[in-house]
Amino acid sequence: MNTNLVDFIRANLAILQNQPLSGGIVAKNMHISDNGSGELSLYGDFTITLKVLDLTTNGAPNLNSLMTFTQQVITTKLRGGGYKNGVIIHKYNSAKKIFDKTKTWTYSIRYNFNFTVNVIQINMLTEIKGNDFVLAVVDSIGHQFTDRYGRNQSSAGLTQGEGGPATVSYNSWQKNKHIGVHEFFHTLSLDDIEDSDKKNRLMYHLGDNSGQTISDTEKGDMLNFIMKYMTDITKGNHSNVDLNTVNRLKTFLNNPTNGFKFNKAKFR
């Protein structure tokens, strides 16, 4: 093999190794520490990207400020690591630094993650990759629900389960700047709260919040979701490759029971 070809291969390998992984969750520099007593400590540098798709009829002039606020709050809420008991995963072999996929084990997990959060605006579906996180901004949401007290409630936002996609009514988002964060945290696996003694919590959703806190348990649940494909941590890089956001978004927005009103001409 001639020298020029060798140099060419080396150069292209270097480029490939430095390319960022696509997806809503990307992690690098991941490693594990096992204390030998059923506790794993996980480390890694994570980048979370939330793509905001404006589908409003008349535009959203305050969208940039709402996105900036949302990015700041998500970053703050995820900062500082977390802890979760009773996590059942494959047994970790610390000597070989691999997970034994023939055995399962119950661990306590300490999450020591550094986060960079990007909330960015996109203009069309072609800017969404199959595993992105998306927040669609719509004119209104007709969906209603009955709370635990038997009262009929309107929806300021809706999320299609873990991984999303998520939606928010623009007018509602302007009135309550935390709604974007609330819906995104549904994407990261958190449930709504309706307990009257928990009105200080961000996931309380009956409209009379007295605060915007996240419990340690909720934080542990989100960090556990972020590392849902935990065996990949032994590879050093990670991406949430199993999502299919484009198809899920199309199905979600076109479901008549959700009652979304939006500019369909933008949805292309």
TrEMBL record:
Protein name: Peptidase
Species this protein is from: Pedobacter petrophilus
